[in-house]
Design goal:
The structure is a single chain. About 45% of the residues lie in helices and about 15% in strands. The chain has about 250 residues and is α/β, with parallel strands linked by helices. It has 2 domains: about 35 residues, no CATH class; about 180 residues, Rossmann fold.
Length: about 250
């Protein structure tokens, strides 16, 4: 990885000497390398992990929550069917799904984040990685999975949900199975999307078909089974090659 980062630095220094002038400052180079390091360590880790099911949700929901119990059940079922679990590595829903998979000997990838006052890695992961930047962690939570499950959560969960939804909506990634788990929690959001966004032509009617609201964990298992088991080191998004972007003045 260090060799790749060194190459990245060389490319940046070349850019600094090109027609762009001296706009690229040393602090920008330093920041860019830090971003690249977070992304590279994630991409390397993903190549050693079979794509599975990414589970999102609040870290504040404990064992007495019906959503915790549901996520634990889901993790166990997916492990029994041979599907790995990917989470943000924290507690609450993340720990519940990881715990369920762990109890059945499943493989669990926890993608943790450095935060000043919270986000301790739960004890149920078999593989883990710590990120400095949220955006790099979200890239890996997306690329590591073939199915996405969103349990009730706060701003972070909403951010992750809409990030992936927009990627699918705009064709930046294929439309993959996406589930919102918990009808009571998610239906009011769908009503807002319908009565405020759709009604004002801010989103297309077909956009709501990208995700499914459900209470049934078997919907997720069936979707994962339909996609099948991909080999380690094969990523279903590899076919989406990076396209060269035109220069600003072209």
């Amino acid at each position: 990885m260090e060799e790749l980062l060194n190459e990245w630095c060389k490319e940046l220094l070349k850019y600094q000497k090109d027609d762009a002038g001296d706009d690229l400052k040393p602090v920008d180079v330093e920041r860019s390398v830090a971003y690249a390091k977070d992304l590279l360590q994630g991409l390397i880790k993903l190549r050693s992990f079979q794509q599975g099911v990414s589970v999102f949700g609040s870290a504040r929901l404990g064992e007495n929550s019906k959503y915790y119990r549901s996520a634990r059940e889901l993790g166990g079922l997916l492990a029994q069917y041979g599907h790995s679990i990917v989470t943000g590595g924290g507690y609450g829903i993340m720990a519940a799904a990881s715990r369920g998979a762990h109890e059945y000997g499943g493989r669990v990838l926890g993608l943790n984040i450095e935060l000043p006052h919270e986000q301790t890695l739960n004890p149920y992961t078999t593989d883990n990685l710590e990120f400095r930047y949220f955006f790099a962690r979200k890239v890996m939570l997306t690329m590591a999975a073939k199915v996405y499950v969103f349990y009730p959560g706060g701003f972070g969960t909403m951010d992750e949900f809409f990030d992936i939804l927009v990627l699918m909506q705009t064709g930046k990634m294929p439309k993959m199975p996406m589930f919102l788990m918990g009808k009571t929690f998610w239906k009011p959001l769908e009503k807002f999307i319908t009565t405020r966004m759709e009604a004002n032509n801010l989103v297309a009617k077909g956009d709501r078909t990208i995700y499914k609201i459900t209470d049934n964990v078997m919907d997720v298992v069936k979707a994962a089974e339909k996609l099948g088991h991909h080999k380690i080191d094969e990523n279903i998004y590899d076919s989406m090659r990076l396209k060269k972007q035109p220069a600003v003045n072209e």
